[in-house]
Hints:
Layout: H1 13-34, E1 41-44, H2 55-61, E2 67-70, E3 73-75, E4 79-80, E5 86-90, E6 96-99, E7 106-109, E8 117-122, E9 129-131, E10 134-136, E11 146-149, E12 154-156, E13 159-161, E14 171-173, E15 180-182
Parallel strand pairs: 1-2, 2-6, 3-7, 5-8, 6-9, 7-10, 8-11, 9-12, 10-13, 11-14, 12-15
Antiparallel strand pairs: 4-5
Amino acid sequence: MHTIVRAATRGSSLDRLVAVAAAFATLAGLAICAGPAGAVTWVVHADGSGDVPTIQAAVDAAAAGDTVLVTGGVYTDASPDITGTPTVVEMKSGVVLRSADGPAVTVIDVGAEEVGRGIACRGCDASTVVEGFTIRGGEAYAGAGILVEGGAPEIIGNTFTANPGGMGGGLYVTAGATSEVHDN
């Protein structure tokens, strides 16, 4: 039995193939080390002069891992949520919604609506956070301040004022949701 061994000569197609494979391996390694693209912080001001004009516009523009940072002021822009209930913020899974200045000066005011809700979290995962707001004037059968339907968002450090509702006027967490709720 004879074994034929061919020596690769300089510039041969085998050399080029090895060089291309090494380049791809290097690029793949760099991509893995770099990880996902950096998270974005969307800033919202009550006068509409931030990165986007409203909290909802910021949440809509945000991707999972992004933060919507809301400065002090009163926020009233409500639009119909998926059920038709006027809602100031319909959260998106993986987005952090945080006030920059705390609940004493950062207010989501639903009072202009006859029936309405401050924030709705539907199926949002555990990386979703709502932190540091006063939510007032909501009026809905369930969750006039914040409604959590399914999922596991974290609800931290909020104040609920004058949010009448049949069930959980300030905050209502439905069966099956596993939210972390603290310091509210």
